[in-house]
């Protein structure tokens, strides 16, 4: 007779989704034997995760509040032909706060510096050859390469800097697309953490995940100089390449997982257009914490159901992505978002929350399209990855 597994749940990868799941389970169900494994020396990597007030209900905002590094009551957007301030709350979670709070809460239930050789739905084999067993294992190690999804990419490099003099910003600039476009939809994202400290992030919506760090660093330096900001110190640098889903075969993707529970980007739980993932991670953590049975088949089914619900709900966003990436010139992609940001604040809030109503969708598509009409129709009909030609 096989011995009972030593853990109820093992989470592999200490990123946003798995970290929130472990933290929520520890708080809500402390009797569970959970273990969070991370290859690096701390969880959370080197990231900034943000969300709008409308993305989460008050109860969810309350329990993640200890992770929030800064909140603002409004934010700005800038385009070549106009600028706008939106009176919607915005908040950011930093890796530092994420690691500090969650590591302290988990204590011995967190192990860092752990290399993984392989895993199954109920076991994890470490690089030293030892094997850990659990009722279920969640794989949260980021995007999985697959032919089942057709993707564009949001590539970015951000620098947190301390300035020699106050910057003068009173709100984040979550999209400054007045900059040179450089072959794709490019904007600069700026978070003012205090009077002298900014995160300046150069972001590109492009066809491949390849990126040029030196060019992005030069773009940040040029942007700071144009704003009259003198950088006194580079505090840290972060970079990434987020998937932007154009089309996909949901059932085939999940068949490839072969019963392996997963979370975060690996489960497709992110906003298909913006790449924001924190609201999805919060919802998944709550759903898993509420499950009566954490055995691998039941956990896999629950996560797949959550992902399927989001996949159905984001069909319209994939349509917008195809219009953004497949219709018109890359240097004119900003016109799609520029037109969108002239719409009502309520509709914009629904968009970021991923909860567009029928009348919202009709309003977004009404009027003269910001891309060639024929190209827009061609992009709209390409609903399967095979129909979308990949760049050479």
Provide a compact summary of the structure.
The protein has twelve helices and 16 strands. It has 392 residues and is α+β, with helices and mostly antiparallel strands. Helix 1 runs parallel beside helix 6.
Report what the structure shows.
With 392 residues, this protein is of the alpha+beta class. It has 3 domains: 7-68 and 92-146 and 249-313, 3-Layer(bba) Sandwich (FAD/NAD(P)-binding domain); 149-245, Alpha-Beta Plaits (2-Layer Sandwich); 315-387, no CATH class. It contains 12 helices and 16 strands. The chain has helices at residues 16-28, 58-64, 95-106, 213-226, 250-257, 278-289, 296-313, 315-326, 334-340, 345-353, 358-365, 373-380, and strands spanning 7-12, 34-38, 48-52, 68-72, 75-79, 82-86, 90-94, 110-112, 116-120, 123-126, 131-139, 149-163, 173-176, 185-192, 197-206, 231-248. The strands form 3 sheets. Strands 6-5-13-14-15-12-16 form a 7-stranded mixed sheet. The chain has a 6-stranded mixed sheet with strand order 8-2-1-11-10-9. It has a 3-stranded antiparallel sheet with strand order 3-7-4. α1 (16-28) packs parallel to α3, α1 runs parallel beside α6 (278-289) and α8 packs across α12 (373-380). The longest helix is centred in the C-terminal third of the chain and has 18 residues, at 296-313. The radius of gyration is 21 Å and the shape is globular.
